[in-house]
Write a structure and sequence with these properties.
Order of helices and strands: EHEEEHEEE
Strand content: over 45%
Shape: globular
Helix content: 10-25%
Number of helices: 2
Radius of gyration: 15 Å
Largest sheet: 6 strands, antiparallel, barrel
Length: about 150
C-alpha cells in the first residue's frame, strides 16, 4: 500500500442522502445504483464514480450525510433536477487499492496518517473514487481530509 499526502480538487454532480453510519456498507451502494440510472443526464461526465461522506465525529454521532455522483470535467451551470454540483479543494491523505479491501485500506490509512502526525479534518467530506478495470477487481481510491 502506498500512502501519500495530496491537495486535490473534485468537481462532482451527485445526489445527497443520509443514513445511519452502521448501514453505509449496504445503503450507499443501493443509492449509487439508483443515481447511476440517471447518469446519462449529466453533461461533461468523466464517468468516474465518486462518493463523499460526512465523517463520524464521535461515538454519539450515529447518522451522517453523503453524496453519490460522478466527477465532471469543468464547472457546470446546469444540473439535473434532484442533483447538486459540488466543488471542493482540500488537503488529504490518500491510498488506492482493491474495493474488497476497503475496510483495511481505511484502517491502514488512518494509522499511517496518525503516525505521520496529520490531524483529520472532521468538518470536510471523506472522498472515495471508484475505478472499473476490465481484467481485474474494481479499485477504490480513498481521500481522508486533513488539516495543515
Amino acid at each position: 500500500m502506498e500512502f501519500k499526502q495530496i491537495k486535490k480538487n473534485f468537481k462532482v454532480v451527485g445526489m445527497k442522502n443520509s443514513g445511519v453510519f452502521a448501514d453505509y456498507e449496504t445503503e450507499v451502494p443501493k443509492f449509487a445504483q439508483q443515481f447511476l440510472r440517471r447518469a446519462y443526464e449529466i453533461k461533461n461526465s468523466s464517468e468516474t464514480e465518486i462518493a463523499l461522506y460526512e465523517p463520524k465525529r464521535n461515538d454519539n454521532h450515529l447518522e451522517g450525510q453523503y453524496y453519490v455522483g460522478l466527477i465532471v470535467n469543468g464547472t457546470l451551470n446546469e444540473v439535473p433536477t434532484g442533483m447538486e454540483y459540488i466543488e471542493t479543494t482540500q488537503d488529504y491523505v490518500n491510498v488506492r487499492g482493491k474495493i474488497s479491501d476497503i475496510g483495511k485500506l481505511h484502517k491502514e490509512l488512518l494509522k499511517w496518517a496518525d503516525e505521520q502526525g496529520f490531524q483529520r479534518d472532521l468538518e470536510s467530506y471523506i472522498v472515495e473514487t471508484y475505478h472499473q478495470n476490465e481484467n481485474y477487481e474494481e479499485k477504490v481510491e480513498i481521500y481522508l481530509p486533513i488539516l495543515l
